[in-house]
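*** Protein under study ***
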Amino acid sequence: LRSGRHDQHFYASFWQTLHDTGRWSGEMWHRRKNGDLYPVWETIAGVRAPEGQIVEYVAFFNDITARKQAEQEIFYRANYDPLTGLPNRSLFHERLEQALKQARRYDRQVALMFADLDRFKQVNDTLGHSVGDRLLYQVAMRLGVCVRDTDTVARLGGDEFVVVLPNVVEESDVGIVAEKIIACLVEPFDLAGHIVHIGASIGIALYPGHGDDSEDLVRHADLAMYQAKLAGRSTYRVYE
């Protein structure tokens, strides 16, 4: 049954609890005869002799694979956008708050980018929502390759995307990322035979210069994005 997924520290604590109390309960991974691993909820109790010493242990366990899968499904639905697979509004705010906490602790900058797709409504109106959904999915894929692994790309809804860039050194670095995203999104999209040209208007706000908390940064990045729209689209603006 031993899965190999638990380290020595786990088993040391496990046996210490059994020794001290005669019982242990918790989640554990087991291995089937065919080698597959599966999670269980296990309860182990000591069997004592008349003199009081433990002479053996009896373990009861239930396969909790279905419960784990249900928990993962609930977590995914609560935190990720079902269309693009990107973090949703809830997880975005959580990631932004984490980035701001780290920035306050280590005296660093955080950039927030609001990206609104240009001409997305025309795609939906002329080619239909299914094509629009394919476009949003491809946009999400392109945004992912424009940023670092430590950055967060999220979809707020509709054609609005946000990017959280922690540990920013210079404001100009954020501008470089914005230009990269814009250049990436002006390239044509092939959507089931339909060649579509769009763009993105991006607004940028930085902590601490443009706001002390997430609410200020979101509002100011949104305002900057509208300025980019007014400036002719497929460009970016930094909040002033």
